[in-house]
């Protein structure tokens, strides 16, 4: 009896300890799952406030409340890009590049599809991973200008900006008979001249060895009022975001090459650029930070808002870093409201709004 009793007790102990281990493991997994859900989802639910500031200069406080967080306006996109605030319609336009669409957001109706297709209009399926529209801008005539990856063109909508219809006038499709790579971002001056960048991100392999790449460089271009396409720069490895300082005499271009994570600036002299230099360099940046130098905007005071590794960088007109608005996911572009009180941010699958002073 004693022998069998001991065996029974031993078996009971094994059973109890096994149950404890299983319950502990299950509870641990459940807690880990709950923790993971909070990390991944809760900070990005609509109406949540996200991001935080790293302040490097007191001048940042004149632009924004350094305790501010951004509000999530919309989410669920593959790669949001090219945001543009349209004051007359009280709406924000932005591209979802892989899905070949432009969305619009309004305070009243939230997010709606504005234009589809937006960047590729061919009959055959596109071979590109990112065939849609990218950078957006308004022409002085009120029509929407679009950088089209899939069509490899800079286009203008024929319809008014309050009507989303895929009818385009092609402003530029090639340089000296060779197709552009994939126009990425653009800036339109007050008198209608268009500056744009042309990296290879809309090509099937997204690199310089792509068989469909016809130009041996990735360029920065200007379309003058006569409609002539002028090559301004062919030495930036990955030209991306583009903007002009007040007075439109200085041009800023971001380079999204992780080996050369720089912003460059030039003086504009007619149909050419002069006195080029690095505006700011992130050489040696922390590779754990999400994103690269991409879209950028400049306010009436010459302050620069530039997407880059870790979020949105704030610079003054001389290239002094004032602050970084930290974000978990890569930021691709940003846009200012006309009164410069709001900064809109395309942040991977999200669209954000940050209040400024």
Give an account of the 3D structure.
The chain has one domain (51-355): 6 Propeller (Neuraminidase), CATH 2.120.10. Helices cover 11% and strands 41% of the residues. It has one helix and 28 strands. It has one helix spanning 2-40; strands at 49-50, 52-55, 70-75, 80-86, 91-96, 101-106, 110-115, 133-138, 144-148, 153-157, 168-172, 174-175, 178-179, 186-188, 194-198, 219-223, 229-233, 239-244, 250-255, 262-269, 272-281, 296-298, 304-308, 311-315, 321-326, 333-336, 342-347, 350-355. Strand 19 and strand 20 (262-269) form a beta hairpin. The protein is globular. The chain starts with a helix and ends with a strand.
Features:
single chain; five-stranded antiparallel β-sheet; Neuraminidase; disordered N terminus; 28 strands; 357 residues; mainly beta
Q: How many E-type strands?
A: 28
Strand content: 35-45%
- Spatial strand sequence of the major β-sheet: 1-3-28-27-26
Largest sheet: 5 strands, antiparallel
The tally of structural domains comes to 1
> Given the helix and strand composition, which structural class is it?
mainly beta
Topology:
Blueprint: H1 2-40, E1 49-50, E2 52-55, E3 70-75, E4 80-86, E5 91-96, E6 101-106, E7 110-115, E8 133-138, E9 144-148, E10 153-157, E11 168-172, E12 174-175, E13 178-179, E14 186-188, E15 194-198, E16 219-223, E17 229-233, E18 239-244, E19 250-255, E20 262-269, E21 272-281, E22 296-298, E23 304-308, E24 311-315, E25 321-326, E26 333-336, E27 342-347, E28 350-355
């Amino acid at each position: 009896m004693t022998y069998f009793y001991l065996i029974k007790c031993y078996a009971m102990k094994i059973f109890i300890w096994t149950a404890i281990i299983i319950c502990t493991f299950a509870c641990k997994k459940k807690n880990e799952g709950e923790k993971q859900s909070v990390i991944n989802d809760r900070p990005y639910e609509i109406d949540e406030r996200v991001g935080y500031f790293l302040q490097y200069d007191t001048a940042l406080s004149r632009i924004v409340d350094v305790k501010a967080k951004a509000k999530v306006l919309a989410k669920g996109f593959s790669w949001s890009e090219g945001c543009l605030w349209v004051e007359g319609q009280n709406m924000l336009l932005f591209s979802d590049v892989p899905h070949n669409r432009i969305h619009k957001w309004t305070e009243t109706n939230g997010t709606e599809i504005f234009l589809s297709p937006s960047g590729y209009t061919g009959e055959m399926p596109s071979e590109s991973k990112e065939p849609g529209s990218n950078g957006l801008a308004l022409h002085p005539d009120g029509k929407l200008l679009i950088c089209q990856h899939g069509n490899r063109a800079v286009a203008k909508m024929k319809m008014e900006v309050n009507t989303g219809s895929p009818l385009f006038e092609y402003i530029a499709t090639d340089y000296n008979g060779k197709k552009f790579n994939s126009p990425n971002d653009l800036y339109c001056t007050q008198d209608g001249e268009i500056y744009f960048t042309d990296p290879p991100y809309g090509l099937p392999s997204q690199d310089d060895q792509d068989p469909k790449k016809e130009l041996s460089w990735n360029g920065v271009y200007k379309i003058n009022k006569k409609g002539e396409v002028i090559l301004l720069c062919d030495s930036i490895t990955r030209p991306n975001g583009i903007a002009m300082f007040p007075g439109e005499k200085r041009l800023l271009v971001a380079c999204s090459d992780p080996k050369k994570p720089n912003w460059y600036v030039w003086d504009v002299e007619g149909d050419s650029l002069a006195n080029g230099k690095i505006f700011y360099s992130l050489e040696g940046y922390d590779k754990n930070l999400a994103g690269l130098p991409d879209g950028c905007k400049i306010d009436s005071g010459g302050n620069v808002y530039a997407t880059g590794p870790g979020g949105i960088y704030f610079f003054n007109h001389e290239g002094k870093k004032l602050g970084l608005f930290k974000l978990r996911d890569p930021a691709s572009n940003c846009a200012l409201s006309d009164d410069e009180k709001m900064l809109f941010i395309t942040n991977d699958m999200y669209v954000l709004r940050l209040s400024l002073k």
